[in-house]
Design brief:
Helix content is about 50%, strand content about 15%. The longest helix is centred in the middle third of the chain and has 19 residues. The chain is built from 18 helices and 13 strands. Strand 4, helix 5 and strand 5 form a beta-alpha-beta unit. The chain is α/β, with parallel strands linked by helices.
């Protein structure tokens, strides 16, 4: 069968690559064309000849309401290119991975054009813009969800879904970071064997510009303390970015470095992590590193988001537990002083850290066992075979 997959950011590229492995395993004749990134392209090249990657997500990821407005023309052009390519390629199914701003438009087009539409990793309609539930019912043939708290929500809303666990467990547990030791990690880098704090600023340019100035001021303050003067700070460079996105913020600080392609290892061997809210925070919980989540956007975006977002937490781990497992420093609370206080607490307060680790175990158990990506791929093929 012919599968057309659309992922629009780093997390979608990760989950899309694992889904593709499952599709190739269950359907050896699978023919896949996709919008995604390097991870998906790597899997494609292991199984198919030619070019499967239509567009790299790095060329068009934006965040926030104002950014979407500024990039409206490019958005329209990408949508037009995408729909034309789908029509020309004529797949058996269009598989959309998260990325709702773009993928809902594609879902409407694909449905009206007569293509089967699967949505993998539900758009967060339970957090905001609940009106999109109607679009899920109207334009999506089958929804594949990945969080246990989504089960009662979509059941109440009358949206048909399939739940096979969360694919991030496999992505984390099968990663190099979880099978190697600290020495092996450091051998691939120029990092000295000293304690360090992991800093994850997100993957979009808007996130980096909001997060990095506070990260650097926090690093300065912590480095100036006698007990922490030997500590380093490692920024996990996003796969869609280059050193140029960070160097202006890092400056000549010799105790701050940026590493690319090592995000999970950077998290695993850190004493603590300061993480932009998103998939990385859930990765951190599954890896087991003590963390504090931070988030800041422009004043306009924050006011709009606060008006439409309905959930109590911004972090997936806290949402899963329906309580605070780790602290969230949002907008005005995201300050160098608050980050410093929280990181020191993570390092110095054993009881606090151990309570967080117990919460991490609850999160892992709630997400189910291994094999989610393969199970979803198999379910998708089964759904297609019913037609």
């Amino acid at each position: 069968m012919r599968y057309y997959i659309i992922a629009g950011e780093a997390s979608g590229d990760l989950h899309g690559s694992n889904l593709m492995r499952g599709l190739y395993a269950e359907d050896p004749q699978a023919d896949i064309r996709f919008w995604g990134g390097g991870r998906m392209d790597e899997v494609f090249r292991e199984h198919q000849q030619g070019t499967g990657l239509v567009k790299d997500y790095k060329d068009g990821a934006v965040m926030g309401f104002t950014q979407i407005l500024l990039h409206a023309r490019a958005f329209v052009r990408r949508f037009s290119d995408c729909t034309a390519d789908i029509a020309a390629w004529n797949p058996d199914v269009v598989i959309l991975i998260d990325y709702p701003g773009f993928n809902f438009r594609v879902a409407e087009y694909a449905h009206k054009a007569g293509f089967k539409v699967f949505y993998y990793i539900a758009p967060k309609v339970w957090a905001s813009r609940e009106s999109r539930v109607r679009k899920l019912k109207e334009y999506v043939d089958r929804l594949f969800i990945v969080f246990p708290f989504e089960i009662p929500y979509f059941t109440r809303k009358g949206v048909g879904f399939i739940y096979k666990g969360n694919p991030l467990i496999d992505a984390v547990d099968n990663s190099r970071a979880m099978t190697e030791d600290r020495a092996a990690f450091l051998s691939r880098t120029s990092q000295p064997d000293t304690p360090y704090i992991a800093l994850l600023a997100g993957s979009r340019s808007g996130e980096i510009s909001s997060m990095m100035p506070v990260f650097m001021e926090y690093a300065d303050r912590m480095h100036s303390l006698p007990d922490y003067s030997s500590y380093r700070f490692i920024v996990a460079g996003a796969p869609s970015r280059t050193m140029g996105d960070y160097s202006g913020y890092v400056g000549d600080r010799d105790y701050v470095s940026v590493l690319f392609g090592e995000t999970q290892s950077v998290m695993r061997f850190a004493e603590a992590a300061v993480v932009n809210s998103g998939t990385a925070s859930l990765e951190c919980a599954l890896i087991g590193t003590p963390q504090v989540v931070a988030y800041r956007s422009s004043a306009v975006n924050y006011v709009i988001a606060k008006a439409i977002i309905k959930v109590r937490f911004i972090s997936l781990g806290n949402l899963i537990l329906d309580r605070f497992c780790f602290r969230e420093l949002i907008q005005d609370y995201f300050t160098p002083e608050n980050v410093l206080y929280e990181v020191r607490r993570l390092i110095e307060d054993t009881d606090y850290r151990e309570e967080m680790e117990r919460g991490y175990q609850e999160i892992r158990e709630a997400l189910g066992g291994k094999g989610a990506s393969a199970a979803v791929a198999k379910s998708m093929i089964e759904e297609l075979s019913k037609q």
